[in-house]
Structures
1.
Amino acid sequence: MAVATRNGARALVDALTERGVDYLFGVPGHGAYPIYGALNSVPEIEPIVARNEQGAAFIADGWSWTTNRTAVGTSVPQAGLTNSATGLLQATLDEERMLFLLEEEPGHRDVLRSVARYYARAGSAQEIRPALHRLIDQLDVGRPGGAALEVPHAILNAPAENSGPRPPRSAASLPDARLLDEACQLLSRSNRVVIVAGRPIVASGSEAHLLRLAERLNAPVFAHPNAKGVLREDHPLAVGCSWSARTLGEDLLRSADVVLAIGPRSGVATGVRTPDQLSGQLIHLDWDDLEQHAGEPARLKLAGHVGDTLEVLAGQVTERTTRSYSVEQLDAVRDVPWRYAEQRVPWAVPFFQTLQAALPRDVLFFTDSMVGLWVFRLLRAFAGRSFRFGWGNGTGTLGYALPAAVGAKLAAPQREVVVIAGDGAFLYNPQELATMLRYGLKLTVIVCNDNCYGAVRDNTAEQFGKAIGHELANPDFVRLAEAFDMRAIRLGAPNDIAPALQAALDGSRSTLIEVPLELRPVRY
C-alpha cells in the first residue's frame, strides 16, 4: 500500500516542529495512527506513550507546569477523548497550557467545548498550520488552559503539498492606561497593602515582578494554592497558603486599605469580606474580564497581560520604607496552620516537620488527596513551580500526582521529584509507574496508608452519624512497587520517614515508601 510522503498529518507535525515541540503525549490507536505515522519522519518529536489516556493528559499537564510551555497530546477518538477529558479540564481550570489534537468525530465538539478553553477545526490541509499556530499563540499570550484542534480523517490522510500561512502573533495587551495609572496611585498612597498571588503570576513567569512590587510596598503576600511558592516562603513578606475564612489571615486582609488580587476572585482574594468593603478595597488583576462582571464588587478591575501589568506596577509604585505589619503579626498568621494541626492531627505533626526538613529546597513535589491539603498549609515552598496539588483550583480529581510527576521528571531530569498520596488516590493511576519505568525516570513515591478513603470516612460520619463507603482492600504496596522495578520500604511509624526519604533521594532508582498515617479533613 502506497503511503503519501506528505499528508495532512505530516503538515500537522511540521507545524509542531515550527513551535519547537519536543514531545507528543498520548496513547496510539485508531484515528491517531496518521499523526504517529508522521512522527516516523520527524525525529525531533518523541512520542511519550502512557498506559491510559487520563494518565497521558496528567503527564502532559505536569510537563507543562514544570516548563511553562504548551504540552501537546493526542488520543484515539471518542473513548480516548472522554478518558482524556479530565486532564483537559484540569489544564483549563488550573490554567496550564495544553493543546490536544484529534481526528474529528461527531460529538467531540460538545465535549471539547465543555473542557477546553480554545477550540478550532481545520477543514482543509491548508488550514492546519494557521489553526495550530493560532491556538498556541492564544495559550502563550492570553489566559492559559486546554486547547483542542480537530482535523477530519480524510484531511489527515490526504496529500497536502501546500501549507497555509503562519498567522501573525497576537500582541499582549495591557489594561486601560487610565485604570493602570489609578492603580499605581492607589497602591502608592495606601498605608496597608496586602497582595494575593494567584496562578497567572506563575503562568506569565513574573515572579520577579511580584517580588519587586511586594518589597517596594512592604506588602505581605498570600499565595493561592495554584501559586504556592510564587514568593519563596522563607521571605519575610510571604504568608503562603495560611489563609482561611475564620483565622488571622482573614483579619489581616480585612484590615488592609488595599488588597491587590492577581487571578481568581475565589477564596483568599475576597474571603468573607462584604461587597461594600471589596468595593473600596479590592484591585483585581486578571488575564481578561472573565471574572470581572459588573456585579462583582471591586474598586478597580484590571484586565490584561498579567506579567506585563505587574512589571508596570512594580516599576511605578512609590517605595514604602516603613512596615505596614509587624514581624509578630505575620509570624502569627504563618503559624495558624501548625497550631491547628496540633489540635486536629497532633500525631501527624512530627511527620510533616520531618518531611519539610528532608525535602530538597529545589524539589518538585506533587501531592494528592487529603494529605495534599495538609502539605499545602504546613510545608514551605521556595519557587512558584515546586509544589503542585491537583485541587489547587482544578477538578478535585484523585490520581493526578503520580502521572504529573512523570511529566515533571521528563521535563527536569536533574531535579528530585517526590509524590505523596493517600492509598486511595495512589490507586487511581498506578499504571503510570509503567511509563516511569519505560522512560527510565526516577521518582520517589510516598503512600500514606490508612486502608480507607479517610476523607469519605470522616465526612460521611460527621454528616450522617455513621461512616459509609470508605472501606478499601489494598494490595501489598511494597510488592506492587517491586513489580515496577522500584525499591520499596514499609515504615513502622510516620516518624521514620527521614532516613527512608534521604536514602530514596540519594539513590539512583525509583523508590516507594509506605507510611502508616491517618489524617483528618481540614476544617478551619
2.
Amino acid sequence: MANNLFPRSSGVLLHPTSLPGRYGIGDLGDWAYKFVDWLEAAGQSVWQILPLGPTSYGDSPYQTLSAFAGNSNLISLDKLVEDGWLTKADVAVVPNFPQKAVDFGAVIQYHNHMLDLAYKRFEVEASIEKRNIFESWCTQNSHWLDDFALFVALKDHHNGRPWVEWPEGEALRKRDDLDTARETHAERINQHRFRQWLFHQQWHELKDYAGAKKIRFIGDLPIFVAHDSSDVWANRDKFYLDEKGNPTVIAGVPPDYFSKTGQRWGNPLYRWDVMQKDGYRWWIRRVKASLALVDIVRIDHFRGFEAYWEIPASEETAVNGEWIPGPGEDFFSAVRQGLGGELPIIAEDLGVITEGVEKLRDDFGLPGMKVLQFAWSDPKNPFLPHNHVPNSVVYSGTHDNNTTVGWWRSEVDEGMRRFIQAYLDRDVREANWTMIRLGMMSVGHTFVAPMQDILGIGAEGRMNTPGVESGNWSWRITPDALEHPGKDGLAFLTKLYQRRPDQQEKEYGDTATKANEE
C-alpha cells in the first residue's frame, strides 16, 4: 500500500550518461539540472537511474570497479571550471563527439586527461580550507575509498589487467607489497581520491536541487559485484575464490524459455555464512552508501536472496548449475536493523519467481515490479493492469527491454496485438502512450517510464540488449528532447491519474489532450 515511503507518484528512467552535453557523455552539470526542471514541469516526482559506479570493460553500469565509488566520467567539467580546477581555455577545444551516442573509448580518454589537469591545479592552487575539506571527506569514506584508490592506481599501472593477473603480492594483498605500492603510486592514489571527492560533491549538489523540487531518486543496486573490482580484491574471504583469487563458482540463471543454455554471468558468489558472522557488515555499508546517493534502491535479481543459481566456474554455460538457498529473512532483518527503520527498497522480482521469493518480498513489505511489455499472454498474467497490487512499481519497459515503440513494431505478434486491442476495446495508435496511460492508471503506487517511451523512440533508442556484449549503454537524448510535446502529455496523465497530488493545479490545454488521444 502507498505510504510515506512510497506515495502515489510517477517518474522517468534516464541514466545520467544519456543526458546531452558537449563532452561526449551526459554528466552532473547544467543538463542534469535542466532535466530536473523538466521533470518538475512534467509533474513528475521520481528520477530513476542505473548504477552510478565506475564502469570497466564493456561499459556496463552493472559490472563496476566498485560498489561504493562513483563514475568519474559523470563529473561535470563545466563545474570544474566554475570551481577553478579547470580554466575556460582547458575546455575551449573539445573533440567532435557524437551527439546521439557515447563513444566510450574516446570519452574516457578525454575525461581522464581533463581530470588529471584538474588534479594538478588543485595540488598547486587549493587553499588550506579546501584541502582540509577534501581530506576530511576522504577520512569519512576511508572504509571503501582507501582500497578503491589503491586498486585503481594498481590497475592503471598494470595497463588495466584484472587483479588476478597482477604480481602475486599485489593480487593477494601481501602487507609489504601493498605498503610499497602505496608509496610508489602515492600521487595516482590521491588523484583517484580527488576524483571520487569531485563526483560525490557534484552528485549531492544535484540531489539537493532535485530534493528541493520534491523529486526523489530511485537508484539501482545489483545483487552481485564484478570479480574485477576493489570489493572482491579487498574482501576475498567473503567470496568463493581459489588460492589465486579466481572464482570457484559463479552466478547466473538456468536455462529457460529465452535461452537453452541459461545465462552465465560470471560474478563470484558470496560466502553468506562468512558474511553472517559479522552481521552482514559489508552489505549494510553498501546499502547505506547507496542510500546516501539516492532515496530508494531497486535491488537487481532480488530472487538471489531466497535462492541463487550456482555454476561451477569451469562450466562454459549455465546448464550444469544448482539452486542454493540464499540468506533470506536473516539478511533483510539485519539490513533493516542496520538502517534503523523502514527498507526503502524495490525488489526486482522478474523472471521465474517462486512462492518463497514472494514471501520474502512481502514479509518485508517490499514493492515488486510490474512490466507492461510482459503482460500480454492471458488474462491471469500478473503484469496486466487489473492484476496489479498497490505495493508495486509499474514500468512500461526497463533498460533491458526494447523501447515500447520498438517492441510494438518487431516483438508483438498478431495474437498479442489482438489481445491488447480486445483488452482496450480499441485499436492502438501510439503504443508508447497506450502503455504509459495504462501504467499511470494502475493501482501500483509508483509508475516509471523510460525517457525513450515518452519521446516515442524506436529500437534505435534501446539502452541494453541482454546477452549482447557490444553496442549497449550508449544512447543519449539530444537537447531538443526537452522541448518534445511528450512533456505535456506526461503532465496531463499525471494530473488525470493523481500521481502528483501535491503539485499546484495547472491548466492543460488542447495540446496535452491531443497528445494523448488514441
3.
Amino acid sequence: MTVAEAVGRTLAGLGVDAAFGVVGSGNFHVTNALVAGGARFVAARHESGAATMADAYARVSGRLGVVSVHQGCGLTNALTGITEAAKSRTPLLVLAAETGAPTSNFFVDQAALAEAVGAVPERVHSAQTAVADTVRAWSRAMRERRTVVLNLPLDIQAAAPANPTVERPQPRPAAAPAAEQSSVDELSRLLAAAERPVFIAGRGARLAHAREALEELAEACGALLATSAVAKGFFRGNPWDLDVSGGFSTPLAAELITAADLVIGWGCSLTMWTTRHGRLVGAGATLVQVDSASDAIGRQRPVQLGILGDVREVAGRARVALTGTRPGYRTEPVAHRLARERRWRDVQFDDDSTATRIDPRTVTIGLDDLLPAERIVAVDSGNFMGYPSMFLDVPDDDGFCFTQSYQSIGLGLSTAIGAALARPDRLPVAALGDGGALMSICELDTVVRLGLPMVVVVYNDEAYGAEVHHFGPGGHPLDTVRFPETDIAAIGRGFGCDGVTVRAGSDLAGVRRWLDGPRDRPLVIDAKVTEGPSWWLEEAFRGH
C-alpha cells in the first residue's frame, strides 16, 4: 500500500461517502482509493465546479464535503469554489496533490493559497505520519467547521506508509461556550419589555437545529420571525414567518422589521444584505446578537447586547427565565396583513413583458405554480437572483441552497448538483443568469452524466445585468457588458438535455410537458427576460 492509497482508504473508513473532483496524475491514486473504500466519486468538468458541488453537498446533507484535485493548476482552478466554502465555514476537505520542486510547471505555494482565501492549510508530512495527518485534517474540518486543504506531496504519496490503519475518532463539533447567566437574564428583560420584537435566524440557528426552541420563545414574547437568505425556509409554515430579512424582504416584511423595537440575530451575521446596510434596524431599536463564535458578534455592526453561546441553548434558557407570555408584535392587524401580503407574489406589479421577452416575475410565478412543492432551489449570483430566491417557494430550509458568501457568478449550477445528490428525493432547480450559466455550462455534461432530473432555468437578458443597471444610469458605455443573443436552450440540447425557450407565459407549456413525461433528461429553460433593475440590487447600490 502507498501513502496515496492509505489516505483514500482512511478517509473512506472515517465515513466519507462522496467526493467530487477532476482527476489528474497527482490525485489519481488517492481518488481511486477513496472509491475502493466505498465512497462515491463524482467527476466534475471543472475544479471550481467540483469544490462547489462538495460545498453544497455538505450544506444540505450535514456531512463532510470532499474535493480531489491535481497539483498546482487543479488547486488554482478550484479556488473560487474553495473561497466560497471557506467564507461560509463549510466543513470541506480538499485533497490537493502537491509538488515540492520549484522547477516544476505545477509549483505554487499551495499552503499560502489556502490561507489567502480563508481555508486552513494542512499537509501529509511523511510516510510515517500520513494516516495521522489525514485524520487531523479530517477532524479539524469536522470539529471546527472549516474548509481544510490537505496537501499531498507527490514523493510522499508514492512511499509506503509506516502505519496504514488508525482507530476512528469521534470528532464532535466544538461545543459552544455556555452563555453567561447575566446575559441570558438581560435578554429575558429585553424580551419582557419589548412591544415589537423580531427574531432573525441565520446559518447558526439552522446548524443548531434551533427552530423549535426559537418558536417557543417567540410565541411567549410575541416575536415575529425572519431569516437571513441562507436560512430561507427555516420557519416555513409558521403563521408569523416574514421570510427573508434584507434586500429580498417583501415591502411588508421590511416595514415590520424596521418598526421593531427589539431585533435579535440568532446565529445570524447581520450583514449589510440582511439589514439593508443597517436601514432595517430602526433608530430606536435594541439590537442583540446570539452566536457561538465570538468573532461574529458585533463584526458587521454594533450591538447593544452580544451573547456568546449555542443558539438553541440560549433560546431555551431565555424561555425559562421569561415568566408568562405577552402578545408583543402578534396582533390581529399584523396577522391580517401577513395573510394577504406575506409573499412577493402577493405584491401587485406592472407586468413588463413584451412581444419577445417575459417579465422575470411572471415567468418565476408561472414556474412556482408548475414545479412540484418538494423541490430544492439553488441560485446563482447576478441581477436576476432575487426573482427565484423570493418567487420560488421552498418547503423548508433544506429546500434552498445559497452559495453567495463570495458573491461570485458561475456557482449556481454546481450548487444544484451537490444539493441534488444530497437530497435525491426532491426536484433540483438551478436558477442562473445567462452570464453565470455560460461561465459554468460545462457542468451540464455532469448533470446529464449523473442522470439528474434537474430543471435549469436561465434568466437570459444577454448582459451582465448588475453592471448594466449600476453604470447605465451614469451614461457610461455598456458594450463590454452586453452580448449578442444566445440560444441557451439549443446549447442544453447539445449536451443531451431537453430545451425550452420561454418568451411568453404560453411557452411554459413546454415545461408542463417535461414535468408530465418521464423526466429522463434534464430540462434547460432559456427564459428571454425583460431587462430591468431588480429591487434588491437597487437597495444594494443605494447602500453604497
4.
Amino acid sequence: MDHIPTFLQSKLSLGQSAAAEISPGLVSAGDFQAILPALVFIATGTLLLMLDCFTRGLSHTDETRKNRSSLSTAINFLGLLGTVVAGACACASMEQADPSLAFQNYIRVDSFSSAVSLIIILGTFFSLLAAIDYLKRFDAEHGEFHCLVHYAAASMLLFVQANNLIMLFLAVETLSMAAYLLTSYLRDSRRSVEGGLKYFILGSFSSGFLLFGLTLVFGATGELELQEIAKSIAGGEADRSLLLAGMALTVVGMGFKVGAFPFHSWLPDAYEAAPSVATGFMSVTVKSAAIAVLLRFLLLAAEPAGEAGTASVTEILSSVLSLLAIATMLFGNLVALMQNSVKRMLAYSAIGHTGYLLVGIVAALGPGGELAPDAVIFYLLPYTLMSIAVFTLLGYMGRDGKDRELFEDYRGLSTSRPALALCLLVILVSFAGIPPTAGFWAKLYIFRAAIAGGHTWLALTGILASIVSLYFYLRLVVNIYMRPAEEELDADPDSSLASGLVITAAAVALVILGLFPDLEFGSLIKALGK
C-alpha cells in the first residue's frame, strides 16, 4: 500500500475496521419492529402481486369477469388495509421519546422520520383510494399498480429512516425504479411510455451524481453512518476539499429527485405522461421523502463546529441552495403562467413549491433556524393533500379514458357540479397561499423561518413568486365560476364514491388546518443532530 496516499490509507483502514466490527446474525426482533411499516407495505404488495399473477390466466367467461371484478375489489381493500396498518405502526413509533437504531445502525427511527413516514403513508392511502375509480375507467385494474405503489412507499420509508450512506442509496434507487414504472404504467399509451423513458434516463444520470457525491463524502470522513459523519466534521477530521465536492454532487443528485431548477427537465413530461393518480402519488410522496432526507443530511453533514473550514462549507452550501431556491421559485411560477394544460401548469407549479421548501432548508442551515425543520415538515402535509386531491379531480372529470387537462375544459363547473367546484376552489386557494387555508400557514411558517435566520431577501423573493402564482391558480377559478360551459360537465359514470371522498376529505382538511394551524409536532427535530 506504499503507492496509496496517506490519507486514503487511513480511510481504507477505517473502512476495514468498521467492517470487522459487523458480525453476522445479530438481527433481533427489535430491528424488524423498527421497519415494521415498511415490512407491512412489502408484504401487502407481494400478496397483491401473487393474487393477480395466479388469476390473470383464467378464461374470459362472464363468470370469470365477475370473479376478476371481485378480485379487484379485494385487491383494493387489501391495499388500503395494508396502508392503514402501516400508518398505525408509524404512529406507534412516534410515541418513543428517544431515537432508536436498528440493523447495526443502518436504520434510525426518531420523531422526525416517523412524522415524514406518516405523511408518506397518508399520501399512499389517498392515492390508492383515488385509483379505485381511475383504473376502472382506463380498464387497467391490475395488481401490479398496487404492488408498485406499496413497494415505492416501503422504499420511501426506508429512505427517510436510512442512517447509512449505502442504505440511503439502495432505498432511493428502489424507489426510483418503482416511480419509473408507475410513470409508464399505461403501456398502450405512447405518451406514457415516452414520459417514463425520459424519467428513467434522467433519473439514471441523477443516481450517478448522487452515488459519486456520497462516495466523496465517505472518502472525506471515512464514515458511512450519518451521525459519525457529523462527528468527523465537527472534530475537524474531514478532508475539506473532498467534503465540499461530495456535498455539491449530493445536492445535484437530490436536486433531480425533488425537481429543483435546473434539474427539473424530466418533471413536466413525467407529470403529463403518467396516469393522474400516479402523478398525484409521485408528486407528493417522492418529494416528501427526498426533501426530508436532504434536510437531515445537510444538517448533519454540514453542521458547523466552530472551525473556520467547517463553517465555510456550511456557508457555501447555504449560498448555493439560496441561488437554487430563487431560481426554482421564479422559474416554476413564471413558466406556469404560459401553460394551457392544467397538468403542465401543476407540474411547473410543483417546481415552484420545491423552491419554497428549499427556502426552509436554507433557513435551517443558518443561525436562528430552529423552527425551519418543523416548518418544512408542516409544509409537506397540506402540499400532500392539495396535490393528490387536484390530480384525483383531473381523473375524476375525465372522458373516454382521457383526463380533462385544458383550462377551458372546466368552464361552468360551478353550475353543473357546485360541490366539486367548491372543493377545487378551496384546493386552488390553498395552493396560492391565501387564508384561511393550510397553504397560507405553510408558506407563512417557511418565510418566517427564513426571516428569523437572516434570509429576508429570500423570503421576499418567495412572497413575490407566490404573488405571481395567483394568476394561473385564479385563472382556473375564473373558468370554473365566471365562464359558461360549452358542454355538460357531468362526471364520468365510472367515477363514484372513492374519488369524491378523496377530494372532499382533502378540501375539508385544508380548511380545518387553516383555521386551527398547529406547528407543534412533538418536537420533530429533537433527534436531528443527536
